[in-house]
Specification:
heterodimer, A: mainly alpha, 5 helices, B: alpha+beta, three-stranded antiparallel β-sheet
Chain lengths: ~80, ~300
Amino acid sequence: MQQPVRIRDLAGFLGVLREETGLDLTEELAHADLADVPAWDSVHLLRLIMAMEEETGTGIPVAAVLEARTMADIHALVVHGGAVQ
Amino acid sequence: MSTPALFPVAGGLGEAIAVTTADAPWGRVREQLLGHGTALVHGTLGDWRPQDDDSEQLRALLGRDWPRYRDLAHTEMRGRYVASRRLLKYAAGAVLRARPEDLELGYGPTGRPYLRGCDQIDISLSHTEDLLLVGLTTRGLIGVDAERADRGIYSKGLGKHICTPKELMDLAALPEPERNPSLVRLWTLKEAYSKAIGQGMQFRFTEFGFGPDGKPAQVQRPDGTPGAGDEWSFGTFGLHSARSAYCVSAAVYDSGLGRTLDTEITTMLDNEATDAITQALNSATDEATGHAGDRECRP
């Protein structure tokens, strides 16, 4: 199974998140600690998990995502962490 | 301004008290803490954000949080960070009868805040949009959480990541207009509980529940059986602030030691320990100066 095109790179991943959350997420913010991202909270994190499950068609390593410190880290988990075949 | 409790509250959490920089009824906050062992205060981001974000006064107030504050790149994050810490320190200072700038915050391994050297008071902080919320308790542990009351969670299908199987069933059985508010309530209760125990999101929300509205909230196992005893109290409130409606929840753990009736910071000193330290210091001084036995023990 190929990686979903939309989230294959960080920019595409952020685009999906912008659609889901309505937040203005930049590549700079993607590398910031999640606690420092304006308006980011745990509800958005859950929406991210759901959105990635829809994009990949498979489950996401939720425990690892919850421990991730940045959106870039989460992107790496989704793309390289086994959720995408 | 005060707000009524929407749901029956076990343990008497009292009302959330609005405080502004111009008019802060700290006497009522102290009364609530004395009467209930717990107090909730709320303010707005716009009011508690300082006009000068680089003053010596602000640096003194933030103390060890100053470097962290200066490192925040975004204006919005800086404003929220400093406003929440100001409200927290002023509220804690009011009940401890201490200057806010004399209080230091510490953070546990999961980021849970506490007051350094003041274990007679536990604290919790929540902020969403323009609302700042602070919880204080002398009973043991506290966690608070606030969420916009109309935040769309249910329709997005987030319930399966938040709810136990029983909670999902209970929600589905509700009339459609009640499902989202009930899920927001569950969300804030779970956030408050996980913050009280210092677990944050690492505590899987699907593995504990709170049951439906209209009854005193109690931690439940996924199958709906009780998961904790009376040592935990929970409450949920409706709150209006800055023209928005919020759902607020608080979780309080009673350690069984009773309410601390006098939280003034100076009276927390143990007299016996103080006497022993004073004696030892006096003895050491007297030995050095050759005046052993001349001095009283009490300061």
